[in-house]
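notes to self, project folder thing:

trying the whole complex as one job this time. last attempt i did each chain seperately and stitching them together was a nightmare. two parts in total, labels are on each line so i dont mix them up again. if this works i'll redo the older ones the same way
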Amino acid sequence: MYGAGAMGALATRLMTEKDVEIVGAIARNPSKVGRDLGEFAEIGYIGVPIEADAEHVLATQRPDVVLHATQSFLPEIQEQLTLCVRHGANVVTISEESLYPWSSSPAIAAELDALAKQHGATITGSGHQDSFWLHQVSALLGTAHRIDSVYGKATWNADEYGAEIIQSKHVGETLEQFQESINSESRPPTFGGNLLAALAQATGLTPKEWKTEISPVVAEEDRHSNSIGTTFSKGTVIGYSDIDVMRTVEGPTFTFEMSGYIFGSGESDMNQWVIKGEPDLFLDNGVVPSYTTTCTQWVNRIPDVINAPAGFVTPDQLPPLRYRSMPMHSYVTPGILT
Amino acid sequence: MYGAGAMGALATRLMTEKDVEIVGAIARNPSKVGRDLGEFAEIGYIGVPIEADAEHVLATQRPDVVLHATQSFLPEIQEQLTLCVRHGANVVTISEESLYPWSSSPAIAAELDALAKQHGATITGSGHQDSFWLHQVSALLGTAHRIDSVYGKATWNADEYGAEIIQSKHVGETLEQFQESINSESRPPTFGGNLLAALAQATGLTPKEWKTEISPVVAEEDRHSNSIGTTFSKGTVIGYSDIDVMRTVEGPTFTFEMSGYIFGSGESDMNQWVIKGEPDLFLDNGVVPSYTTTCTQWVNRIPDVINAPAGFVTPDQLPPLRYRSMPMHSYVTPGILT
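result (full assembly):
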């Protein structure tokens, strides 16, 4: 387990319930280092100390696969992934950019791909996007004779993902401050762009033109954040929407609107897709438990990542995600672990 | 094209729009024999006469793949599929039982499987079920850590599929006649049973116990059938629901309720799945264009069926259905057609 946050804690329980042997845990936060991962995850002692020295953990424990959850963007995590791969470990990361890094960080992706091949390891990005935004949607698009446009909308509650995420969402700014921040900062690529590139790949279409808009989400009444214990007054920015538009050489336009903000009571994560073409198509996942499904997909992907060929293998190249009714190791191709 | 009904007509247009070369058409109905398939499909003359002698068409035209749409059950179509396979043709059929015949007609499926292998041909069942009931649902189930129960509900408008289908749905009977028919007739296996068996296969669960209930759908007010031009009075049977329940050795229960009846105005086909477990999951496809998607999936499966290994290969064993942006032949593995 590389990274010990909320996601790592939940995945720790899910893995132990599917008989995955956890051999090591890495985190830098001094308040976590030295603690037992099981106790950190509130499932009781499992004899796996959280350690700060990643290289030491990887070298001594030689894991078959690393579950990685630290930052979102490839430039931030390249060094960590490199370290894993150099020690021969497969990696499944919930870094959002890793879903399909070829569109936004092609050079780093190529470097990691070559390194992974050299060491016989696989790097894959999974998480909530894998089934809900990619595989369910591409399966739906497989029922189309002609696609004119694809529009997806997802919302998620930034309040459920910890203080670090909230700080990155411009929460608490005025609209003026938000515009200033947006104008002055060099924004990292959006995750929607990676998703749309993956969908283009899955539908055999060729991206031609990209556009990204950012739009603030503003509190319509006082809005309380449980995770940081602060109430933001009406009119304050409580998050934002990234709206990505991809045009393709073949014609169809893909739009994805992803809104992350602090939810009010009664709001829930959504995932909805509207396709225009022959025929018109629709998909809605109702109340989406994104928090949990980020972890379930991360964990359910373990055998696929072990079984996959070496390299940076994006989930559009993997078999569709499957339910794991048996202990996780029973899905691993016999003889593939050395 | 084996069978020239409403589905065959639509698929004919879809295929020509994806540059599929149609080489022959088979139907027995004397009012269709001799007509040009393109004219029958209302897309203009294409130079393909509808012929009654299936063997002659298969022997002279040697098709790479047969799109088959005659009856629903394997015992009814075994002879037709056998004929195709003996002539070395791959077959993709919308016979509902063929989605997963191993649960209901294992002996016939095994016979066809052996014959197909002997002749290097593939038989696959596709159609509406492929993505909407199987691949979208199994992709959703792939986000579960624990499944307790799966409940699916689909409705379809029997009025859209022609007179033969309506006659098989007990339409026009009184409730008493319906009960008598049900009690006296030996009912064929339900399609829901095949679907649940396919879902068990896709989730790695082991079916233990099966139960099927049939429940009439009764007109709550006068209900008009456009396809047969008859109005059925309030209280008349206008179709029925098949409710299939599958229990598994591992615990989870799967239920599928499929209701086919004559819709009233404002009603539309639906496809909705509710999963209880960790976490609870949900899927809804809104207004489902089942009529069109039966054909689009049938046609979009063509290259997968050609590319697949020989035998009776059910869609859970195929790659997920994909959108075809290019001419259909560009998805065929080079060199696989001899």
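what i see at first glance: Chain A has a mean pLDDT of 95.
need to look closer tmrw
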